[in-house]
Write a structure and sequence with these properties.
Chain lengths: 481, 481
């Protein structure tokens, strides 16, 4: 247990940080009845937190965790065991997941002059024939650009979707990612034989960024790969100079039968109303190129650490806090759907769900999908995060895994984190532990713990949002991180 | 031809640049008799330069140019043809070069838990057996760290040389690179079965940086590869936590028989003393992972452009300016040696040699290996580069290809360029055209042209340096860029 003196020391250290807290503010929102608990949580995490150690095991010790892989199963087993060691009630709830595996991936420009390209298959892509797909390339400025090309320009060609992220952060990602998720099917509908997509990312380091593609039933399933920004630029320059660019793409990826896997669910039982539940969530699976440190090992570490910390500090709130480590966020969302189905009868008493799936950088605040008046009430809660510089509130959002809970009007929250560099590494081989600052990760873990504790302790609950309007057809589905 | 008005406009534009020129300085060193020519050169290059276009063809149009490859031969043919089109006398001077080819490269940690590593063979490495080399890893903090480990710790192991670059730029490179050039042999001498070397670079983007290794005759030739910084850190953390790390390395690289290739030598004939020669040099070959834009396509473009520009402006100086585009700087220096041998009788009348092989960023000045009083005389010359912010002079250096000329006491100069980001991309897949700013490259080309013109026009010549002291044994040879 932490002594009071050590907590005070931690808060003093915290007060000296410059993360955007207006200078005269007290270290915590002292008018709040939860200020004492928040102070203890933040102080303890900064002094003695284990979030980075958890993340190090997930990434260094286990490694990539793509659904269906040995790494994913090891992550299920290890996190369940570790959560049990905290004294929590833990269940592995079965989920059947897609099992896609990467294979050989090669691309080269054959004309005007041979050049090897760096590519990586998009998750879920069909393979090419063994000798590849060879065709001329036509360039499209995103999905809209494709439509303006028309069928004659696209038929028999490889389409290069080449719209860069217009700005850093989630806004830029949302703008660029439809070409990755939908491009292959849109191109196939116009007769394309394969699709290449400019890596959706913000670093120029010849990095391929993978990610899921969603084939539409109405279009042929053509192979699709991400190319690095540099390679996309090369093709662009050759085409712009009037050259015909002929290219060969070889992908050896395969889709195997669905594999059994699991969500890991751990309850910190509520003191008074254990049937009322606050979910804190992240996803266990990762892409296979890196070790999934920022996406979403960091979120897993924050959730596990928040539970450990509350248990260790003896902060057992009125309601149950449930950690859910979802499987298969990246390429299927099967875990999110399975949880919503399996727990359908409990969802009316899910008072909130918070997901942390935006990296490992310093927290900046919360996003929220809540009923009328909910944002104002969250403002009070968020002031507890002011010493972390994390007291901003944005309307909308939550997280991909908890999205299915909105149908039952569960208030959805997302932990927002500084996103300046997130897409430098996201879904690429460079998503590795060294990108994470232990102190920043600790701030995120503390924020999750403070929010979870407060939501589970405060007498009132957040106003519930309306269920979402009927799902739009798949082409307009929002991009998944 | 450029009109005077356009030149004046270019100089006006130039004067507004903020590259470090003290504000009240005139755009060129007006007291110098060469100020008029320098102004014309700089203005013309900034208005109508072709350096970037040349570089684009070398990188986008031809691609990687490793000695012995089709790309290298295409570069010889294309640059010779283009230099001829400027009206210069051009020769392809035969050089026999090493012909090493990359093959499969794979590495994985087998224990404590499987993890795939990103590696790339060091240039010249022997292959592993087809099923790889499997052994435990021992970590060494550079060459010095290896010696302190001793034979018992190294025998039968794979040595990971893991000293990072201590600072950015050439100083940091020089400190870290001996583990790449000499590590394999030093480790083999202590019984190691393979060597891994932390990529010598400054960007954390899971980038492998290749480069030459030099096997010593006195040690077994063990396979050697670069690992990314991230992978080196991973192994370090596992070892630091007390784990034994077992690893398998597979390299399929091969050394083929030496291949015929050539230096490209182009003369802008001197007006009065054509037998006196100022060499301006760069190297045509590049590593194979990227397209060699910064190393050394940029230098090639500067040299070619300087010759084109002087010819176009009708600036034919007293002496001959000879562009030498060397082959095989990266893994053998055969071109540099061949030129010195083939032109031995001319070397007493080589009045200076300038190499540009430090990237494509803005020029900052000159380095020089000259006789007594030479640096002072160069100060006058360098003042002509003040409008470019390139008027600093450093003692020592020159360039790898022109190094063999020092035995004949040829004054050696190197064009210095801003090196802040050079080692982010150097020898990696990310050495591509997009890393080059056309305006900065033009400044470099202008600097080469101004220096070459002035050295070839001024009545006096630079004091000749003493020949180097007898070459030290190969382990202490200076690192090659």
């Amino acid at each position: 247990m932490l002594t009071r003196a050590r907590t005070v020391a931690a808060l003093a250290a915290l007060a000296s940080l410059s993360w955007g807290a207006p200078a005269p503010a007290p270290p915590v929102h002292s008018a709040s009845p939860y200020a004492g608990a928040a102070g203890r949580i933040i102080g303890a995490e900064l002094l003695d937190g284990q979030a980075f150690e958890i993340l190090a095991h997930l990434t260094d010790g286990i490694g990539p965790r793509l659904s269906g892989s040995a790494g994913a199963e090891e992550a299920v087993a290890w996190t369940a065991e570790r959560l049990r060691s905290y004294g929590l009630a833990v269940a592995k709830e079965e989920v059947l997941v897609p099992h896609w595996v990467r294979g050989l991936e090669e691309a080269e420009i054959l004309a005007p002059a041979p050049q090897r390209l760096l590519v990586t298959a998009l998750g879920g892509s069909e393979p090419t024939p063994a000798d590849g797909v060879t065709a001329e390339v036509v360039e499209a400025a995103g999905i809209e650009g494709l439509q303006s090309l028309g069928k004659d320009a696209v038929r028999g060609r490889i389409v290069l979707f080449n719209a860069p992220m217009p700005v850093r952060g989630m806004e830029g990602y949302s703008a660029a990612v439809p070409q990755r998720t939908r491009g292959a099917s849109e191109a196939a509908r116009l007769g394309a034989v394969a699709a290449l997509v400019r890596s959706v990312g913000t670093l120029s380091a010849r990095l391929p960024h993978t990610g899921a593609l969603n084939y539409q039933d109405s279009a042929p399933r053509i192979p699709a790969a991400a190319v690095t920004a540099e390679d996309a630029d090369l093709i662009h320059r050759l085409l712009a100079s009037g050259e015909a660019v002929r290219l060969r793409l070889r992908l050896g990826c395969r889709t195997l039968p669905d594999a059994p896997s699991a969500n890991v669910v751990a309850d910190l039982q509520g003191r008074e109303s254990p049937g009322e539940i606050v979910v804190i969530a992240a996803h266990l699976d990762s892409w296979d190129l890196g070790t999934g440190a920022i996406d979403d090992g960091a979120g897993v570490a924050m959730v596990m650490e928040a539970l450990r910390l509350l248990e260790e500090l003896g902060l057992r709130p009125r309601r149950t806090i449930r950690g859910v480590l979802y499987m298969n966020e990246e390429n299927g969302l099967r875990g999110g759907k399975a949880y919503a189905e399996a727990h359908a009868s409990e969802l009316p008493r899910h008072v909130a769900a918070l997901e942390t799936d935006s990296g490992a950088a310093r927290p900046t605040g919360l996003s929220a999908t809540v009923g009328e008046g909910g944002l104002e009430r969250l403002g009070d809660l968020a002031r507890l995060l002011r010493p972390l510089g994390a007291d901003s509130i944005a309307a909308g959002g939550g997280g991909a895994d908890i999205g299915p809970l909105q149908a039952a009007s569960v208030p959805l929250l997302g932990l927002r984190l500084d996103g300046t560099r997130y897409f430098d590494w996201h879904h690429s081989p460079a998503d590795t532990l060294d990108k994470v600052d232990a102190q920043e990760l600790a701030l995120g873990a503390a924020a999750v713990a403070v929010v979870a504790y407060t939501l589970a302790e405060m007498p009132e609950t957040l106003p519930r949002p309306a269920p979402p309007s009927p799902a739009p057809p798949s082409p307009a589905a929002p991009p998944r991180p």
